[in-house]
Amino acid sequence: MNAPRPADARVRQCVQRTVRADVQALRAYAVAPAGDCIKLDAMECPYPLPAPVRAELAQALAQVDIHRYPAASNAALQAQVRQAFGVPQQAGLLFGNGSDELIHLLVQTCCAPGEAVLSPWPSFVYFEMAARLDHARFVGVPLTADFQIDPQALLAAIAREQPKVVFLAVPNNPTGSLWPDEVIEQVLQAAPGLVVVDEAYQPFAGRSWMPRLMEHPNLVVLRTVSKIGLAGLRFGYLAGHPAWVAELDKARPPYNIDLLTQAALTVVLRHKAVLDEQAARLVADREPLARALAALPGVTVFPSAGNFVLLRVAGAQALHRALAARRILVRDFSSAHPLLADCLRVSVGTPDENAALLAALQDLLNA
Ligand code: PMP
What we know:
Radius of gyration: 22 Å
Bound molecules: 4'-deoxy-4'-aminopyridoxal-5'-phosphate
Oligomer: single chain
Strand order of the largest sheet: 2-8-7-6-5-3-4
Number of strands: 13
CATH class of the largest domain: Alpha Beta
């Protein structure tokens, strides 16, 4: 016999008086159920790994001793990541269960309660969420109406707020903007604390701060493999001076990168050329998609250096729903921030997926 359960109302009361009020007021990070939809809402790579790589993967995973915890050191994987992604030899490396985890570690390590985390805004929502969850004070510095940084406003905010951590997504999500090097240089000079250049979309931008990592005392570079075909693995890495990495490592949950992820990465990184080729295809398909979207009635497209495009169109919310009804998922930002009114973000998909999106939008906008 099951023991009697407490009434749901009593559980809710207990939750209400126990869970932090600010957490109760938060909304969980939204992920739309995908089913068999055309999935253009999360900037994933639309190309699955080729069959021979999958076969190699299956073999490697079968060898993993998952009855053991991961080893204390993953030096071989560190060397492979360093080599595959051009991490300078003198830099330290820290691995995260997705770069999301590293964003938390950065805030937890640097910010005492109430200290500021600052970012140009709108940008990646998780910068704000992590800051709030970790008791920091989040300061978003508004972008201009065409989604560029206002350097004066940004530098003034840095002087005023004295942020412990500045997050710069380069290229920026969800706008696709690429902050000029001179502005990033100014931020590095002005910031009293750490500047995190988040290069999640770097593979589609062709520019990187990684080679300049050791030129600044307060720069770390954050990367992820999620956008280059491995979103399901949950692996991100941070490169920076070993003195930063040593402190951040103290806040890292033990064994945060599981053995299956390590084994899978070891295999896939041997085939890095496949990932690079897929990224190059997305870059090649980005401009034709942007041009075709911009040719639709009433659609404004913003220039993007990522594997996605932000567009503005009247009635974006209804369009988002109508596309979902046609089994095409895009991301609706229309109520996320006043600057993003009527904005939708679409990932660059396969040519067929892009064509399906364009046909559906054409249809809906003409109706
Ligand atoms: N940084 C930016 C700018 C992002 O847009 C994202 C994902 N949307 C991430 C970090 C997190 O990526 P992941 O946790 O998959 O590594």
